[in-house]
Specification:
single chain; about 375 residues; 5 helices; 26 strands
């Protein structure tokens, strides 16, 4: 890992008209992780009192690279044993070097591998779902939550189990509405009490949650954009200006905040199923062109929340900003970031915030993952 230490201060643009504090987002150093590949499949893991930047490539390199954040040490974990089974990997969690969980798509298999890539345990969750594989495990904003053997997965919805007669003599738009009615009624989480037990105890939690901000005849994203933190999770969607705090013990909404920015709108109006049928690009246009919330993360080291908001596109530019909240969800500051240098991806570490840098050369684009470490003061 190479780094360059320097100090400067990002210009602050306030959207918090009440109670603004005028803090600073200070640049501390640049960090470069020479993984041998560039990937957005990154996350921060901490075990044995050491923080790691972990990044994965599932297809070409077929490995997870674990970089110690404060040294040049890198550990590479091969994924060939899972890929050779014909599995499509969608997520991973590193408990330690001997317990790495690999989640696969469609069949909801969870593999346990060690640092050599050897599989030492496999769980097939499909028997716990309804006949016809109505649900499947998916990757959320974070892969899944693990604590003392307790797992919480985000659930996706598959239409395989819908009565086909419901689609008889209806229009394409009405068919989409039927699908979304079932999808939005589905639970958001699968809770596994002890993943290491011989017999698993599972439950389905938080049904009908997506109906809070979209109707059955409206199109929205299929991803469940949750971040997991101990006994709570955060949730955001491009189709609502509200960020939610969900208790993962009771699976009730503990708190919420309406995200406001002086620089952009913070939600996109969903299109109807009829608009989707009439124009297949309509959803793409409202999702990628307009302003929206793309991330809402908690910083346990500083007891703060950070919200990333992408602004409406301006020609080729893709401006974005970071809004800072205290633990009571009171807005403190908003910082407009330089979109010619930084991408809207943020990782929280004990030392500060790792914000993804746009690589400066074509060679770096395919070989390295680069960041700037910031600290909010």
């Amino acid at each position: 890992m190479r780094y360059l230490i320097y100090f400067s201060i990002i210009t602050v643009f306030f959207s918090c008209k009440e109670g603004k504090v005028g803090g600073e987002l200070k640049q501390l150093e640049d960090l470069t992780f020479d993984s041998g590949f560039n990937s957005e499949k990154g996350q921060i893991e901490k075990f044995n009192n050491q923080e790691y930047y972990c990044v994965a490539d599932y297809s070409k390199h077929k490995q997870i690279s674990l970089h110690e954040i404060d040294s040049d040490l890198m550990v590479s974990v091969p994924l060939d044993s899972v890929v050779q089974l014909g599995e499509k990997i969608i997520a991973y969690e590193v408990i330690n070097l001997d317990t790495i969980m690999i989640l696969t798509k469609f069949n909801s298999h969870l593999y346990f591998i060690n640092q050599t890539g050897a599989i030492w345990k496999t769980i097939d969750f499909s028997p716990y779902f309804k006949k016809g594989s109505e649900y499947e495990l998916i990757r959320s904003s974070t892969a899944f939550h693990v604590s003392n053997g307790k797992l919480i997965f985000s659930l996706g919805y598959s239409p395989n189990n819908i009565d086909s007669s419901l689609f008889t003599n209806i229009t394409d738009a009405e068919a989409w509405t039927v699908y979304h009615k079932f999808s939005r009624a589905a639970p958001s989480f699968l809770l596994v009490e002890d993943v290491f037990a011989d017999s698993l105890e599972v439950s389905f939690e938080l049904p009908h949650f997506l109906n809070r901000y979209v109707a059955d005849n409206e199109m929205s994203e299929s991803d469940r954009l949750f971040n997991f933190y101990g006994n709570f999770a955060t949730f955001i969607s491009p189709f609502t200006d509200t960020a939610y705090i969900i208790n993962t013990e009771t699976f009730e909404i503990d708190d919420w905040v309406k995200v406001a920015s002086d620089n952009t709108q913070t939600s996109t109006i969903p299109i109807t199923t009829q608009e989707h049928v009439d124009d297949g690009y309509a959803l793409y246009m409202v999702y990628f062109i307009g302003g929206r919330i793309v991330s809402f993360q908690y910083d346990k080291y500083r007891d703060l929340f950070y919200c990333i908001v992408k602004h409406a596109q301006k020609e080729s530019a893709e401006p974005w900003s970071i809004i800072v909240y205290n633990a009571d969800l009171e807005c403190l500051d908003e910082f407009i970031m330089d979109d010619t240098k930084y991408a809207p991806r943020l990782f929280i570490t004990e030392a500060g915030l790792l914000i993804s840098r746009l690589n400066e050369s074509d060679a770096d684009n395919f070989q390295k993952n680069t960041f700037t470490l910031f600290n909010y003061e």
